[in-house]
Write the structure tokens for this entry.
Amino acid sequence: MSSLPTGTVTFLFTDIEGSLEVAQKLRDTWEAVQARHHALLQSAMEMHGGHVFQIVGDGFCVAFDTAGEALSAAVDAQRGLQAENWGETRIHVRMGINTGEARAGDDADGSRPYTGYLTLARTQRVMSAAYGGQILLSSTSADSLLGERPAGVGLRDLKEHRLKGLVKPERLWQVVVSDLRQDFPPLASLNTVPHNLPLQLTSFVGREKEIPEVHALLRTHRLVTLTGSGGTGKTRLSLQVGERVLDDFRDGAWFIELAPLFDPALIPNTVASVLGVREEQGRPLMATLLDWLRNRQMLFILDNCEHLIEASGSFADAVLQSSRETRILTSSREPLGIFGESCYRVPSLECPNPAETNQIHIGQLQDYPAVRLFVQRATEALATFQVTNTNAAAITQICSCLDGIPLAIELAAVRVRALSAEQIAARLDDRLRLFTGGSRTALPRHKTLRAMIDWSHNLLSEPERLLLRRLSMFRGGWTLEAAEQICAGNGIEAPDVLDLLSRLVDKSLVVLYEPAAEPRYRMLETIRQYAREKLLDANEGDSLRDQHLHFFLNLAEHAWPLLESARRIELLPRLETEHDNLRAALEWACESDVEGARWLAGMLERFWFFGDHLSEARSWYSRVLDAGERVTVTKGLAMALVNSGCVALNLEYIDEAQDSLEHSAVMWQQLGEPKWLAWSLEWLGYLLLQRGEGGRAQAIYAEHEALFRATSEGVGLVWVLSSWGTAKSLVVPDDPTGKALLDEALSLARTLQDPFCFVMCYSCLGDWAVLQGDLATARRHFLDALEWRRQLGTRWIIAAGLWQVANMMRLQGDFPQAEPMYAEALALARELGDQRSEAHIAQELGVVAIHLGDVERATTLLAGSLSSFHKWADPLGIARCLLGFVVLLQTQRRGAQAARVLGFVEPWLQSNGIQLVHFDHTNYVRSVAAARTDLGQEAYDRALAEGREMTLEQAVAYARGHIPA
């Protein structure tokens, strides 16, 4: 495919006229006939430099560098086909030639040899208008032939023709050659079928999937209604489908615009006027019209029926009862609701995910129909507009925030005359005022976003309007239960919510969708903003936000104990679905009820913990703790503090975590809350273990054993027993009571069958095995823990397990096995946006790279991590990176320089109160021993003393080689 022409390309498409009928006649010899056809065409194409890039059935798709080559190939092919002895059933091939812009596709499997949909589609349409034996050229190809038309080949002007799917009529030319057939019937274009389908002045973007789906429905149903919210392009889609099916109706397709009508009685008059049916004196017009239609085979396109829904339904029913060969395609924001109707919901245009914009090549952005529409309309408004690396993210944001609604995107695109894409994106919160100025010839409701939604809103009953504005409270959708509990009252009875909600779904103002758990409803964001304005205008906002907060606080409180059990697998998807609503509840609580905000944030910790939202959780705890004073001891404050500490600990903010956990423990003691006191102390003991302070951790567990066993159950008790056993072993490695506690925890975990319990047990058993010096057993336990971590599914917990296993492999000297483990953990940390874990893992990966001989990669990873930890003033991170540089210096035989860095690290650890634990301690001891061996005791002591005199900045620069040794 690399040799395919690109840029301005001439395409020649062919197919056998009536191939299905021919194949049936030649049932026994069809394969041989088709093979001969293929050989003749292949030979003619290759003779003139053609590239056959696709053969579909009997159709050839060929690319040429010039129109002259394509024309010569087509003429020679027709001559060869004409000269062939086909027997009684001759083969007639139609051909179309078109020139336009196209690029070679980049699909690895070659499934899309070319990009340039418009050029390829136009070539197909030109070919489809021809008859067997006829060669047609588009005007672009005819213009390209100047000076290179083959001798004896003429062109006959066939005038302009409307071709299916093309916005503007195409001027077509027939190739005339003396020894080939020249006389053909009128072209099979839309010109020959009666219709009043309006000529579209702008291109039709997207809907490659929807057009054939609606066409298929029309084959099996006599009434098809396109539904969807305003601006989704129902009218344009109906017209495109009308053009596509025009050949199926001998009496044509007729577009009936109902939007200007306000009197239902005028529907028959409007239809009669379009069809030219005259009223008969003394007889109802409807009766005359039905008689006229009785034997007709035609398609009616009734557009914009929603404001005359009952009358439209009655009219459609009468027509279908009277005329068996007439079919009706309607567009409406709700179904007509009559027997035999098939509804098709028109979706918004597909948009790229704004979060993934950086992963999408700029050339692929326009593969998304929403972006393609924005760019085309923006280019029409401002000829110099183009997609760049600078504005790509803004364009993606615009299309996504506008829910892929075509009208909204078109109105936004027009604004490029005055604003950059970035400026438009920044003003999306005021979209109802910003996006005005549609076409002067458009319907009034299509000139602004507000007018578009006003049209639908004005058709609602008062209870429907009331519910619509109350539903704007929700973010990210809602369940029926939530709507009934939050939106009922003051004008809406709870039992009526379902019926009203169903009506809003029918009117395309609310969308019903069914994820795995339970049915949910949502509004497009543009409609939600409109309804939110109506809610604020009605002064109902504060009371509804209180009810919203109360509902989701109850949900969080109900979820907490279940998330502490194996049943979390049931709750996590539900809470993830409601995350936007939980955020909205927290935002309101921060404004109106600080105590409630702190309690709610505390209740969400387990969801954030298991749901991979630790970084966001830390931001929320900072916000709720700063929202009010911290002097008065309350349950909300204590709950926010303890869980803030949990999150900070898991994100490696050790000092911040310890301060929060110690304060929360004091508060729970004062409040007389033993259950939550145990929760604070469990985490505090675990934190001390991570700091290597096994003695202090052991003291907490021993002092509060009765409290833990009385208040901790299930997962909590497994955690306490595992941590306590680890603490005992850390203080006295061969203490049998430590192993007994670990075994008790594992026994309880087997009873509970909770993956998280097994994660804790096998991780702690691995730590115990390390302390015993049994690295093989430790590795096995850590791998068992990793298997349970993967079953749990929480990405940061999996990353921690990979890190743990990789550390063990590194300790064993198994660097080739450790490297992919670290690499996977690093990828997960980056995916989660956890910069601290990313820096720690990169440091470990750097040390592995040293042992694998990749000094350049090692230096890059260690230097990047050290810069991050230095910026964050993280003493442990700095120490670990410097120890990584020690290993690097030692492998480069620079023992004195390594010893000087070790000289800085030792007092640095002491002054910051850091005790290296587990793998860090083992690696530190190894580095010290290696330095003594390399230098000898006297030189080692001298280098160590020189290192103790360094400042932090000097040590960092020294380790990275920024100052001479």
Summary: Residues 438-443 have pLDDT under 50 and may be disordered.
